[in-house]
Amino acid sequence: MKQVLPAAAALALLAVAPTPSQAATLTVGTSAEPSALDPHYHNLGPNTRARKHVFESLVSMDAKMRLQPELAESWRAVDETTWEFKLRKGVKFHDGTEFTAQDFIYSVCRIPNVANSPSSFTVYTKGIAGIEAPDPHTLIIKTGKPYPLLPVELSTFGIISAKAAGGEAVTFDKAGCKADSWPTTQAFNDGSLMIGTGPFKHKSYTKGDRQVLERNPDYWGPQAAWDTVVFRPITSDGPRVAALLAGDVDIIESPPVQDIERLKSAPNVSLAQAQSNRVIYLALGVQDTPPTITGTDGKNPLKDPKVRKALSLAVDRDAIVKRIMMGVAEPANQYLPAGFYGNNPEVTVATDANKAKQLLAEAGYPKGFQLTLGTPNDRYINDDKVAQAVAQMFTRIGVQTQVDATTANVFFSKRNKQEYSVFLAGWGADSGEMSSPLKALIATPIKEKGYGTTNYTSYSDPELDGMLDTALATVDDAKREKLLQAAVKRAMDADIIIPLHYEVTVWAMKKGLSYEPRADQYTLAQKVTPAK
């Protein structure tokens, strides 16, 4: 058994602004705002970015998504279904109480009991069959079957204080943990339960305006360079760039691709970029009654594999990357880029409008039909522009398509109610490997397994679910990867989740700051440093 051990308006204004090394405050302009501060409410990128400053995990990942110790100093597989985690001693929550094994147990218990979660973290906890704590700094975690991804999945959610939440007596029960009550998401949004072990303490939050954090002077790890961090959501691209150039913020994420060359030539701006693990995709719903499709006498044409394949063939991914993303992206042929664990090099996609029209005719839709494509307009890079391009491509093959572009909050609410037959969204694999998108996006929603937590298509393939079951119970890394590669091929052949492109993430910052670009796209203030 393998043992896992720690192993530019106003460039002039920008020029005279205080240098970052002199500043005690770092102001970050973000491209999106979290839907809540509750670390267990919504498995969504902006939420995870926010929680990583306050709430930590047993295990974390570096910029290249390699595992590293966090609240657990070390871990090892005792046998195929038993893991031992040695917890870091001397760690204090922001209220001064000691971090112990009970805090992990309570956090795992709370995750399935978060009310109205749009995308639950149960996808990462359902493999846990039992938890014991022989002492306050040792965890013995049992799985029902071999589960080699356990350390990876424990890096995806934050640990809250059992004492602060009144959960000191809660014990783990696979069938369902018992508690008199569970903390509400509002208790985190109002700050009363924003008590973590992270490098920053929560100070204030005004939705739509800013979140303010203060450095945690008692943090167990390296101290951050900033006494205060202010996160300002500036969801419109132009104002976000303008804020940087005017000196109102120190670093911004996701500057619009059309401004990259201008920023490169700005004398007081530096850039950092890297390919991300986020795929932008189309999801095709196979509901019995399609909510946004007309011209089919009430039938859902997306139930026909030929129609789904036609829509995939209609998409010119290279054109999207070149014309819409201006080269700051990579065409996608599956759910994770080459080089990530589980990517299948034999899987390909094609663009063929003539073949697409032929397939539509064969399926009984020679004159096509009409649909509405749902998309956020402030969540992903050029999301509404990409959706408009896709709509034009669909229309060229006879599927008359209009776009419903809304703010992320409205979009996710409608998506979660399955009010779209086709929608555009994105997925970043927090685990850095292929089981993450497969389990969340296309697996059959099976609560007890944590499958299908973000499957809003009504699609179900028991054979694919079985392939995932087998892969996730295979300890041998090489064998497990081959199983995941087979599973992603089957998923791609179904054309339910149609990948478009992988985002390349760019950060722009004042000269004098340094940031290592991250594959997971998170902007972490503790990793922003004065340049050496």
UniProtKB/TrEMBL annotation:
It comes from the Bacteria. The keyword Coiled coil does not apply. Gene3D superfamilies: Dipeptide-binding Protein, Domain 1, Dipeptide-binding Protein, Domain 3, Periplasmic binding protein-like II. It is found in: Periplasm. CDD domains: PBP2_NikA_DppA_OppA_like_2 (cd08498). Pfam families: SBP_bac_5 (PF00496). Keywords: Signal, Transport. Residues 67-440 form the Solute-binding protein family domain. Residues 1-23 form the signal peptide. PROSITE patterns: SBP_BACTERIAL_5. Belongs to the bacterial solute-binding protein 5 family. This is ABC transporter substrate-binding protein.
